[in-house]
Write a structure and sequence with these properties.
Number of strands: 11
Order of helices and strands: HEHEHEEHEHEEEHHEHEHHEHHHHH
Largest sheet: 5 strands, parallel
Radius of gyration: 22 Å
Helix content: 40-55%
Mean pLDDT: 86
CATH superfamily of the largest domain: P-loop containing nucleotide triphosphate hydrolases
Number of helices: 15
CATH architecture of the largest domain: 3-Layer(aba) Sandwich
Structural class: alpha/beta
């Protein structure tokens, strides 16, 4: 979702009715301070909606502060959001300013809010009701002037029924609801998105811009796109690397479809490690662990809570592994 603007916020590309409606809603809502809840599957472009809401608001000269609620252990989320005073807990060796304070006069984007603990939800609710926060371990109330945009890939009404999410917080956050549709519901936007990704990636690689044949484009449009726009971009990059000047339907079938046995075999071959590079068994174990965790995180759209359940470890343990291996979302 491309074409970098002077603002550094990527253009929201698409001519489908759904994208047109989202753009229209952003234009209407951005100039207000109404809270917005953005829903949609992983990789569909929820973050971009939040960025444009900020970019077009009267707060655009101030900061847009992003918090991925799924990537922070429940025991740390309150400190992350509200800050803490020195000595408030064992590792609090100095005062910390939280995201609510950092975003004051600007916008706070709470991504994957459906993964936030109930105790943190209660404090967020109070902050939204009173426009005040209190740092962990502190007593002083601090005024904050923040516009909150939240996003989730979960059905929060079902989470409320299950007792995992507060109904009063849901109503506070969902003054405006924006749903970002999955890519399979806007297949007609794939040619425009593909052209933009081809231009961006080829330019980054310093090579002539490649093209996709008509049959190749039809093959792309026919794919299931479970990973949405993020998956499309990754596939286009793969096709640029592995194909000739014109990307054909045969290239798409061979390299782009993640369920294809051909590409599965090719990927395994391409990524098989050179065992001579490892000086010890421990070094290889660290490599294998890093690659396994990275694969699972990517598969789950970097939802740390879901990934921790998937691989059967504590979320805080997974978070420390992410830190240990220096894993970052979107890295190659």
């Amino acid at each position: 979702v491309l074409k970098k603007k002077v603002s550094k916020t990527r253009e929201m590309l698409g001519e489908s009715q759904a994208i047109g409606k989202i753009k229209e809603t952003i234009d209407r809502v951005a100039l207000t301070d109404a809270r917005v809840l953005v829903t949609g599957a992983n990789g569909s472009g929820k973050e971009l909606v939040a960025r444009w809401l900020h970019e077009k608001s009267h707060r655009s000269d101030a900061a847009l502060i992003e918090v991925n609620c799924a990537a922070i252990p429940s025991e740390l989320i309150e400190s992350e959001l509200f800050g803490h005073e020195k000595g408030s807990f064992t590792s609090a060796v100095k005062q910390r300013i939280g995201k609510f304070e950092l975003a004051s006069s600007g916008t706070l984007f709470l991504d994957e809010i459906g993964d936030m603990s109930l105790s943190a939800q209660a404090k967020v609710l109070r902050a939204l009701q009173e426009n005040k926060i209190t740092r962990v371990g502190g007593e002083k109330e601090i005024d904050v002037d923040v516009r909150v945009v939240a996003a989730t890939n979960k059905d929060l009404l079902k989470e409320i029924e299950a007792g995992n999410f507060r109904m009063d917080l849901y109503h506070r956050l969902s003054v405006i609801l924006i749903h970002v549709p999955p890519l399979i519901e806007r297949r007609d936007d794939i040619p425009l998105l593909t052209k933009s990704f081809l231009e961006e990636i080829c330019t980054d690689y310093g090579m002539p811009v490649k093209k996709v044949s008509e049959a190749g484009m039809e093959a792309l449009k026919a794919l299931p796109w479970s990973g949405n726009i993020r998956e499309l971009r990754n596939m286009i990059e793969r096709l640029i690397i592995l194909s000739d000047k014109i990307i054909t339907d045969a290239d798409v079938k061979a390299f782009a479809n993640p369920t294809s046995p051909t590409i599965a075999t090719a990927e395994v071959t391409a990524h098989e490690p050179d065992f001579d590079n490892f000086k010890s068994f421990q070094e290889y174990k660290d490599f294998a662990e890093r690659e396994y965790i990275k694969f699972k995180l990517e598969k789950n759209g970097w939802n740390v809570s879901k990934t921790a359940d998937d691989i059967d470890i504590q979320r805080s343990h997974l978070y420390s592994k992410i830190e240990k291996f220096g894993l970052k979302r979107g890295e190659n």
